[in-house]
Amino acid sequence: MVRYCFMFLTLGFISIAPVQAQSPSAEEVLQKAIAFHDPNGNWESLNTTFKVVMETPDRPLRTSTIAVDFPQQEFTLDVEQDGNSYLYKINKDSCEITLNGSNDISEEEAEKFRLNCERGNFMKDYYTYLYGLPMKLNDPGTHLDPKLYNKTFKGKKYVVLKVTYDAEVGTDTWYFYFDPTTYAMEVYQFYHDESKNDGEYILLNGLEEINGIKMPKTRAWYLNKDDKYLGTDTLEKI
Question: Helix, strand, coil: what percent of the chain each, to 5?
């Protein structure tokens, strides 16, 4: 996972408090959450294709078809938006890019559509991280706060995990919100600087089962500082 430059969630007027000692540990909650979302341990050997439709205010729909083959270290991202399409195909250390079916891409087109292999690898990490949660919280360089927190968010009580990363992995602070009964992940957030209440929060709704893994059906994104709505991603099975 590369450094994540997303914006994510928090509402500043709600405080987070450590859970009482008799509660399960943070690691136990993580394992229960993984057992809910990936009960058969399929994530590490995932070989599948799915679609994500992104709705953003005042912009055309963006449809991304994502194919992953973890055993072969292959990732393909095929994006369609506003009459154009571009494709990244990443296989281990190789990277191929096409625009509207052609690999003859001008400098102007590459700049307009931000087509470069650095961007392609960023998008690979972006999609595999977000749709690999909470399993990705076991990755090297991930630091799970041993404290387990209680938080009420939008009227519902959650158990909350706090996560930070090694500097070369990412500098943001993340919080993950789980239903205290099922351990389903229902909200997550991150801050670049928590004291500034920056970043975004993401509300997860519904589940789509992809190769036995329960992934969020929709993800709605909002700014922390003023609850401004940013957009919604909808996962579709192929």
Answer: 20, 45, 40
Neighbours of 102 (CB within 10 A): 8
Residue matched to tokens 């929060």: 201
- 185 neighbors 204 (Cβ within 8 angstroms): yes
Q: How far is residue 122's CA from residue 28's CA, in Å, rounded to a whole number? A: 31
The per-residue pLDDT for range 117-126, each reduced to its tens digit, is 999 999 999 9
CA distance 3 to 77: 19
Surface-to-core class of residue 44, CB atoms within 10 Å of its CB (0-12 exposed, 13-18 middle, 19+ buried): exposed
- pLDDT classification of 4: cutoffs 50, 70, 90: very low
What is the C-alpha to C-alpha distance for residues 33 and 148, in angstroms, rounded to an integer? 13
pLDDT 10s digits, 125-169: 999 999 999 999 999 999 999 999 999 999 999 999 999 999 888
**Is there a contact between 215 and 131 (Cβ–Cβ < 8 Å)?**
yes
- Contacts of residue 195, defined as CB under 8 A and 6 or more positions apart, other chains included, come to none
Cβ atoms within 10 Å of 229's Cβ, excluding its own: 11
Cis peptide before 134 (omega within 30 of 0): yes
DSSP 176-236: EEE-TTT--EEEEEEESSGGGT-SEEEEEEEEEEETTEEEEEEEEEEETTT--EEEEEEEE
Give the pLDDT score at 93: 85
